[in-house]
Design a protein that fits this description.
Length: 480
Amino acid sequence: MSGTAQIGVTGLAVMGRNLARNFARHGFTVAVHNRTASRTHALVEEFGKEGTFVPADSPEEFVASLERPRRLVVMVKAGEPTDAVIREFAPLLEPGDVIIDGGNAHFEDTRRREKELREHGIHFVGTGISGGEEGALHGPSIMPGGSVESYGSLGPLLEKIAAKAKDGSPCVAHIGPDGAGHFVKMVHNGIEYADMQLIAEAYHLLRAVAGYSPGKIAETFRSWNTGRLDSYLIEITAEVLAHTDADTGKPFVDIVADEAEQKGTGRWTVQIALDLGVPVSGIAEAVFARSLSGHKDLRKASGALPGPRSEPLGEADAAAFAGQVEQALYASKIVSYTQGFHQIRAGSEAYGWNIDLGAVASIWREGCIIRAAFLDRIRAAYDDRPDLPSLLADKGFTEEIGTAQDDWRAVVTAAARGGVPTPGFSAAVAYYDALRAERLPAALTQGQRDFFGAHTYRRTDREGSFHTLWGGNRSEVRAD
């Protein structure tokens, strides 16, 4: 078989199948392969009219169908399944060929694979793809890592199939070397966890404190989606809350078990943030909130614990409170993105990736789950000041969060008084206040560490490290 396909996709579950169709719809000849050959032929039979597909039943046939340099997209489960596919296909490839991993791989695995394949002259491109099955088909946000050379070969194809921002630019950019693409996708998912948690808390407050029905809350979210909170997650939240269960006639949200699951990328974000020493408290609280929701026995055993219960507000007060919740949601959202972009910058510095934060914000504007109108402003902030230390240091965001903070604090206070858990909102306020505090109680913490472990401390009035000889006659000694 002569090499005629410009790109190949192996692994034809929903994401892989839709990505292959997306390439074909944009005029590329696409080789398709699956371990179970029947799935390959089913795709061609059902969607063959959408473009040109070259089905292959074996790895050898699949590789032979690809033009040089070969571009092979792997769409299988992360971990060992991905390693198995690489072991199967790498011996069939030649120097200059490109393997693209489009799964949710851990970026450290991607770094290992890239190094191993580089030694054989094969490019490995860990690629974050966001947007779910619809995005894969109609245009996702794409975050490829790997070498500059590999992007030169692969980039033009990805730019064709990626989502397009309102200004027409494709939502794809070369993120950086080795694991940079999968690292940015990981943090994207962490921000997604935080965003979803904040929206859920806003819903809970509107229901428990304002006394709104799910249908009324859906109307509120639709209204918010016409303003600065315009985003995909706000849009679908309104749809979920407006939906009625066909079997019971009850609001759909009332018949869903209140146990949120997770696939792991949120946990990775928090774990890596701890390794990097980056505070991502909002993302962490979102991960822990999902974990807590699943501990049904613990929750059942604790249900009789004493505490307040909210009394629904009157109509006028409820409307005013809803306005405050909008302010709190927006301010907390800014904090979540601030933490996420801080982690990306820290990762970039730690691994030498030189990631362009403005470009990251740009490719998240469409296609991905956290796409939102205010990403244009985040992009502009980093384009204007590439060295911007924090989104909260941007004048526009500083002014907005300053305007929102009284309502933000009032909402957190109302939640505490009413016994409504808002770990996301509360963590966001605490992070904001910690950043702006002139002095933190960390001074006491370090004093305690010196007392019980002789860990030393630094002084405010002179250079160096010091240790106090604790006891009846205390004295201080220089420790460095």
